Amino acid sequence: MLHIVNKSPHQTGSLESCLRMALPGHAVLLIEDGIYAATAGSPLEARLREAGSQIRFYALKPDLDARGMASRALDGVTLVDYGGFVDLVAEHSASNSWL
Q: DSSP string of the chain?
């Protein structure tokens, strides 16, 4: 399962809800304002690091770049471009967008 989160952890609890439902082997792609969760100092930084042993995390690099946050990306979060986004969707049998 690919979980896609586009809301900032400062704005909603979407990512926290996603992490409660994600199972080992699932992947989480952070896009748009969701990328803030993948940066140093994020309110969910420790939670992502903890979950990273069982869940793969990705962030859309163009969204990090657009917000000036690429240099603050967390270790363990794989940065992908739009082609990588498409590859992730194709790799997973199902996807869920957390609004």
A: -EEEE-S-TTT-SHHHHHHHH--TT-EEEE-GGGGGGGBTT-TTHHHHHHHTTTSEEEEEHHHHHHTT-GGGBPTTEEEE-HHHHHHHHHHSS-EEEE-
